[in-house]
Amino acid sequence: MGTPLDATEHELTLGLPEEAESGPETAGIDHALVSDIIDKIIVVIDELSGHPLRPYQLPFARRILESLIIEDSAKLTALWSRQSGKSETVADVVAGAAIMLPRLAKVFPSLLGKFKEGLWIGVFAPTDEMSETLFSRIVGRLTSDRAQDILADPEIDEKLVARGKVLLLKRCGSLIRKQTAHPKAMIEGQTYHLVVIDEAQAADDKVLNKSIGPMLASTAGLMVMTGTPTYTKSGFYEQIQKNRRNANRKGRQQDHFQVDWKTVSKHVPRYKKFVQSEMDRLGEDSDEFKLSYRLIWLLDKGMLVTSDRFDALGDTSMRVVQEWHRSPVVVGIDPARKTDSTVVTVCWVNWDYPDEYGNFEHRVLNWLDLQGLDWESQYYRIVEFLNHYSVFAIGIDAGGLGDVVASRLRVLMPYAQIVDLKSDRTNQTKRWAHMMDLMSKGLVVWPAHAKTRSTKNWRNFRQQMEDAELNYQGPHIIVAAPEVDAAHDDYVDSLSNALYLTADLTMPEVEMHNTPW
After folding, report:
1. The overall pTM is greater than 0.70
2. Do the domain assignments include residue 282?
3. CA-based, 20 to 30 A from 298: which of 24, 99, 193, 425?
4. Is the separation of the CB atoms in 435 and 493 below 8 Å?
5. d(CA 361, CA 443)
6. How far apart are CA 69 and CA 111, in angstroms?
7. CA 417 – CA 415 distance, rounded (Å)
8. Could you tell me which InterPro entries the record lists for this protein (predicted)?
9. Residues 317 and 237 in one domain
């Protein structure tokens, strides 16, 4: 079988190494040449698979090849509906690139020289079993009868060697290794030109950033993340949002590729028939159909608050209130544990105008964030801070360190009610349910003036509120920070403690005053 690479230099002739001539060299990147190289590799990819890439697969495939060639260290994301050909596309591109780029490196050393000893690829997934799905497709591509004919062609003359979790193209040096991205796996030390993270929505962010990302450092390599939506944010979700934002900037490449079931159905009639039957069975608005086929992130069911909801509850005309004595305020304290901060949240309450269910509007006035101080110093900082407010009650988690803090503040602040809030799941569920109810009714507001948004406390508050994950365990509601480094929930817990005080405590006698908002 002849190769699709013909006999003129610009059409990328592949003769023996000593006969190879370098392509046109320019001071910058010759994008016409890059496009020509990609065209020829796509022909090889189509030969390997036995059919051309579908129209919705082709842009993603070309962008992977382009990034490898021009060395832009991109972070590509692909959010595709289930069984739409996402893994097939990646497997085809990996197989074709592993064969062709090392050979083209001899023809165009200035452009592709880093592949002269092979293209090195790492295939990752959250578990070893998940990584097998994509890896087995790559193995299938390179061991098929069509692939064997291509590898045996005199211009290719390649030998495939399989060693457990590694595929090696022996003569050109290309390597494809299957690895897990599980948090407990020891995976540091490898070097790759291309890393593929399959089912990236479930990948551990710490492993991705600390262990896998640096594997591309010495090669200025490419990371490709593929997956489907879920209920919670992740590094995959954040990268998608970043790629979408960057796509609106002039001159930026498309780095996010999204394919829902309707796009696939235009080109695969059987797929359309099956998905429509699933729509009838599950319902178009069911969680399962939204996640698998409509590509809708259900963050409102997996996160305490979405970014849009957080913005909606912020008052852009309101700044942090440094002092308030006109009416009683409620305070929530989350005592520091290990690397966490002690966070104090002060909330104004509109005592005079409860809604029909007896719920009050709350406004966050200020935060105190204490980190790195011994507790003796923290007590006095807390008292000094709260002396600027007319404190009605302070809610503190009971148990452990919370008991000690509550006892000490009773001595230092005898004029305020110190409320021990039980920390068992039943009582925590009551607090989270109350907080979620208030937010859903728009009865929790926080300052969002431009000058306030520039402060460290506000940025920490926003980050922790948007990071907080919502889980339902039987009858219980669990809200907590994701289990990754640098994720905390001190501001979230502190706010919930303050808000819950108005659910159980008797309304104090207050005088009517104008508010500053």
Report:
1. no
2. no
3. 425
4. no
5. 4
6. 7
7. 7
8. P-loop_NTPase, Terminase_6C
9. no
